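Because discrete structure vocabularies remain unfamiliar, we turn briefly to a single example record, giving the amino acid sequence and backbone structure tokens:
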Amino acid sequence: MPSAKEEFTERVNRLLREGRDLPEEVIRRMIRELEDARRDALARLAGLPNEGYTRFQLDAVRQDLDRLLDELGRRLANQVGQGQRRGFEIGRDVVDVPFGRAGLGVSYGRLPLEDLAAATDYSAIAITNITNETRGLINAALRRSLMGGKPFHETINEIAGALGGTEKGPPSLWSKAGERAFRIAATEIPTVQAIASDARIGQMAERYGKGAVQKDWRHHPVARVPRVGHLLLGASPPIPVDQRFVNPDTGATLRFPHDPAVEPAAQSASENIQCSCAMAPHIAASSALDKRLEESRARALAA
């Protein structure tokens, strides 16, 4: 039979696995949104005349594609926002569920919801910037056609190709925009999870003592070329909640994985972009809380 500490750790790990898989689930939904919008755009372009167009028709095409891109931006931002909210819940539950199931209570105070709101706003703005850049490239092609620089049917074919209308060829505007949006999801969802875990672990330490509750860096090996420093941090012992993690490879210090306040700030991108690490609570061995954990389990078994 597993010990109380082993059961506690397994509950933490189960939630961390859900958090690890969450960005990929969100990206799969984003891929469907992108493909639906791409097919819609190509269908609209295919229905246009090859010649005999007017300035009004070109403007109508531009407005039609603008509306499509606006809606796509909203849908992608919504998918990332939903993922961030779920990531925030997982970050909280990584602490609440193991302690609650161990009979140690689950009420530790308010989490910083303003951080979640700021994170979702940031992601929405970043995705809007991506769709705006795509819009600008399409509109530039339409303007060239208006000025007589290229026949209309060639312009439409150029835009269709840029949207990925052919299976072979250079990366399309759609795929480039998608890849950037995917990076946002892969970075920002784990970030809010780590923010929630850090806040909850801190509240837990205030309640039970900083010597009893520690924070543990967990490395998730999902990248083809993992960060060496993050691998080493994942293999290092847990640390007190009021200390910073020190990346032994780069020297950067972080409060938690994906820390927006990494020091030095110049290493923020290299430490955080598409990092899939997470943070977990750890009960220090031989602490009073460790003994209480075993006693709580013994009482539950005897009941």
The CA atoms of residues 66 and 144 lie 17 Å apart.
